[in-house]
Amino acid sequence: MSLLSVLSSAIYILGVCIAGYFVSLGILAIPFFQNQVIYLHSVTLTWFQDITIPEQWGFLHNQVSPFTLRTADRVTLQAWHILPLDLYHQHEEELVKELEGHTTDITQRLGFQLLRDDPGSLLVLYLHGAAGTLGSGWRPPSYRAMSAGAPGRIHTVALDYRGFGVSDGSPSEEGLLIDALTLVDWALKEAGIPPSRIVIFGQSIGTAVGASLLRHLAARPDPILFAGAVFVAPFADVELLTASYRVAGTIPLLGPLAPFPRLLAFFNKFIVSKWPSKDNLAAFVRHCEEMPGDQQKYHITIIHAQDDYDIPWSHSDQMFWHAVSATRPGGITFEELEEEKEQTKKSLGPAGWVVEHQTSKGLIREEIAKWGLHDRIMSYPIVSLAVLRAFQSRGKLEPDSEA
């Protein structure tokens, strides 16, 4: 075969690949297919497993109570209430005698009563990432990490958003916010837990839901402010993410267009779910900073692993910058803040580094670990300690030593 024939074949194959890529982008402009890529909700990762039997994921018998929540727009969501280990141990004999599996009335379960009736109980509302269900991947180990700092007091309630697992409907930016609001409403009204005893945890797309939730509730005439929020592996917004995001960590979305900003901006216009996390978090901080009084109103921890190949940790830098800038009347440029961070950054050696920004109204903490990937880090002590710090910031847990 001549060199000319080889070049012609190569050009033809390249042309077909480019054409196929742009056809794929055209298909992704259709909201249905776009949702499948952004949320990956059809990829359950728990095939042939019954989500109403949590013991499959290593939980003790009836340590987890599967139940349902009903949203304002009539969507039924699947949820888990996970008891902390020490509390379970104290009531093990009674718990193992209860009926197992899904319940239509969570208030009849002993675990719920232990949450509701104990004035010292604490609650993490858990917003998981894209793909999978309540039982997928590193989520079950992560639920156990939530209570590690106080295994007798910290309960966790997690839900599958609409369209995930056995929950009804299909996901959307508005819909997932409604789901999170439904979870909060359940915690405040049915479980009777005040906001000062609640921490919001989000991972990946759950951080976007969490930031939207914080902003929405802080903007109310009667603001709702929680003990704190812990965001792991966040992204600044979908438009910034598309330039680097790889579906399932392998398939580039709009990355090939990154060298062509105008072309990238053109295709970004077709994205329906924008999830402007950096703007939502900044707006939340600004709301809190403008509220009267000098008592602490927010405690935000942003955690990311440097080896996260799904979402680059530079997104956490963006989140931290926008949050800090919102505390200053004139704002601050990214470059100026990076200079400040170099002066105040605390090295944690092989564990990474941490930097904090504090005002009279609250604290924003960015912690970058060297290892942990995108999901595994959720189960690490760095997260357990962040949850513990958030509760301690409201005086809900007395520190045994300096955290």
TrEMBL record:
<dbReference type="InterPro" id="IPR000073">
    <property type="entry name" value="AB_hydrolase_1"/>
</dbReference>
<dbReference type="GO" id="GO:0016787">
    <property type="term" value="F:hydrolase activity"/>
</dbReference>
<dbReference type="Pfam" id="PF12697">
    <property type="entry name" value="Abhydrolase_6"/>
</dbReference>
<keyword id="KW-0378">Hydrolase</keyword>
<keyword id="KW-0472">Membrane</keyword>
<feature type="transmembrane region" description="Helical">
    <location>
        <begin position="12"/>
        <end position="33"/>
    </location>
</feature>
<protein>
    <submittedName>
        <fullName>Alpha/Beta hydrolase protein</fullName>
    </submittedName>
</protein>
<dbReference type="InterPro" id="IPR029058">
    <property type="entry name" value="AB_hydrolase_fold"/>
</dbReference>
<keyword id="KW-0812">Transmembrane</keyword>
<keyword id="KW-1133">Transmembrane helix</keyword>
<feature type="domain" description="AB hydrolase-1">
    <location>
        <begin position="124"/>
        <end position="279"/>
    </location>
</feature>
